[in-house]
Amino acid sequence: MKKILLHLESDAKASVFDQVTAYDAGVDQVIACGGVAPEEVTNLVYGVMFTRGGDSLRNSAIFVGGTRVADAERLMDGVLQTFFGPFRVSVMFDANGCNTTAAAAVQKLARGRKLAGKKALVLAGTGPVGTRIATLLAREGCRVLLTSRSLSRAQEVCRDLETRAKVKVEPVQVRDGEEAGRALAGVNVLVCCGAPGVRLIDGATWTRQESLEIMADINAVEPLGIEGIKATDDGKERQGKIAYGALAIGNLKMKIHKAAIQALFRSNNQVMDLEAIYALAGEMSE
Amino acid sequence: MKKILLHLESDAKASVFDQVTAYDAGVDQVIACGGVAPEEVTNLVYGVMFTRGGDSLRNSAIFVGGTRVADAERLMDGVLQTFFGPFRVSVMFDANGCNTTAAAAVQKLARGRKLAGKKALVLAGTGPVGTRIATLLAREGCRVLLTSRSLSRAQEVCRDLETRAKVKVEPVQVRDGEEAGRALAGVNVLVCCGAPGVRLIDGATWTRQESLEIMADINAVEPLGIEGIKATDDGKERQGKIAYGALAIGNLKMKIHKAAIQALFRSNNQVMDLEAIYALAGEMSE
Amino acid sequence: MKKILLHLESDAKASVFDQVTAYDAGVDQVIACGGVAPEEVTNLVYGVMFTRGGDSLRNSAIFVGGTRVADAERLMDGVLQTFFGPFRVSVMFDANGCNTTAAAAVQKLARGRKLAGKKALVLAGTGPVGTRIATLLAREGCRVLLTSRSLSRAQEVCRDLETRAKVKVEPVQVRDGEEAGRALAGVNVLVCCGAPGVRLIDGATWTRQESLEIMADINAVEPLGIEGIKATDDGKERQGKIAYGALAIGNLKMKIHKAAIQALFRSNNQVMDLEAIYALAGEMSE
After folding, report:
1. Quick one: B234 and B138 in the same domain?
2. A260 inside domain
3. What is the pTM for the complete model shown?
4. Residue B266 within any structural domain of the chain
5. Tens digit of each residue's pLDDT (9 = 90 or more) over B107-144
6. Which residues, in sequence order, are CB contacts of C148 under 8 Å at separation 6+?
7. Quick check: C1 contacting A, CB < 8 Å?
8. How high is the ipTM of this complex?
9. In angstroms, what is the C-alpha Rg of chain B?
10. C23 vs B4: CB contact, 8 Å cut-off?
């Protein structure tokens, strides 16, 4: 029986990236649906709920993706609401790669270290990946600061995280390199989540911050967010700090993504959300 | 050579249900086209007519589906008009599952019994499944009554059946339980084709109808159309009558659906319409 | 690892013909994208560029098709501009089958013959196939005349061929059979590229033209463009001339098409354009 993955997203064209990755993870057939509206979800999900029964149901699964994370969350809600009793299949949420990327970044920081008790700064952290990195760091026991150019935006995001993810994250306004340097005071863990090609902190600023131990940057496009590291850095020591660049994080992201897809087909009742994907990442040998 | 099924329908998203079922029937690749307009059919069909030749042509086939049966009939007409001489592939029509569901329901009623000469009542029978059940019962030799809340609607449907399917079906108006009871007079076979979750006839009404022998209900959502039976009833005796519920019919429908898909690939010249699907269902062991 | 072909075109429905042909050429999975706008290309191409690395990248490739050749050229430009350094996959351009059909037609004419120095007439040659046949004939060393009902249209196309394909082709106005006969003076090679079912030259006209040696007609629908030949002619002698009909050319086109698809997966850096496809056709045994 073929392993079938129903791919749902609101973007007009279903992500080719996610489809290729699904095939490489062992999926036999992706049924790709782009341009999905929330009111279309129920009938599409019925198509995998009611076609196979009993143990065979684990050969069908759902992936919710797309670049618009808020749209994808509505689709995901629709998927979960459609299931009832044993009529359900496993489902993974990874719109914009946010869950797998966040899991990869925090796994890089967590491996072989105790993050609990450390102070972490998530620079430009209000996007889907930044908020999820902040969430995972908080769950690892860090005191987490999350920055935005707009204080009210940072505050809004932190309130939302408290409500939805039950984690306490502190909002900080950072509009320039000087404010970035001030926010770095006492920080042990720095994660940079800015837009591709935007420098957020210069080398001198983080080099003189003695408390800083580890840095990660998810921006793969030069100039990177953190001056002085390289996208390929994978635990490289830079000025006495350990650095992880976007390509090293991206490689682990691909492994986590594939492992999460494979996990979907082990039973028909898994929800591969941020927590489950991060737990899975923790079990993987690199 | 891969078994390729070209799936055509007018709904924007090609049915996931039918795609999964096709794969489970052994199709190697579904090429799913949703949102198909009649004027697009010719070119799409050329894509399966002209790519493989000779005996290989039987490895390509077409499925016409979608929830809008009238639209699907226009697509089906377009498919059949595109074929010429040996340039044709096998094609199956099952918009809204109407042919396979009707075949399954009537097979349940017909197995091990002689339907010829019996009086049958198709309650709320003006939809795609109801009209097809009425057609098959008439072809089995039943005297068939078909009901609607609107007499003119029932009359229109029966005229259409006479013209298109060459069967005589009698229109009856049934607006409530009392009229349903009156329509049941002398009836041996009752089939209920109402909307999901709508009760059409209560237990006391059919229990006291001594002529009644067999009942089937294609509504799977409680309350069922016929009070006192269960969706899982599969030939269960209820108050001296034999009952078939929607899940039992649905299980047989899935088997018929898969068998019909498999039959498509035996030669390049089959038309799996209501008649052919019902004939195939009659040859299947359950 | 599955051989994945990303199929891009501007037509709303991705060509079924090209998808079936891709599967028959050994592609494991086509990811078919119809209705692609130029601004969507980059992200779709990233999906094959960034999912597989190193030698594995040759298992992903791109096909640019569709009936609107000018649209397809814009998509092709977008694909090629997205690649950088080693981040590229092989790509084939065959909108409207123009490259494979032209390569097949000229291969038929060229096999076992020396075309260099011959005078060739491409009747009704301003379309995508006609211009490419003219290009290939010119590159084989023919003196090439290309006709249109409109002289200015023929001139425009020839100027464009000089600029883009670097070949010299002479524009000729041909509005009727008499002008066709006059254009045939001294011609050795006649190719007819008119619309399906449109007669362009009658039997008496070409029969009396002593210089004429070979003829090809890509119109498969009766009446053919050249009176007196048959669509199945495959090097058949007709009135002392050698004739190739559309079905013979079409059969070779299919072989060339499949060979070109297979070639895509040999490395990650091939561009299967007119030149490459024609070179490949020349290496094939028939």
Report:
1. yes
2. no
3. 0.95
4. no
5. 999 999 999 999 999 999 999 999 999 999 999 999 99
6. C124, C125, C126, C154, C157, C171, C172, C173, C174
7. yes
8. 0.94
9. 19
10. yes
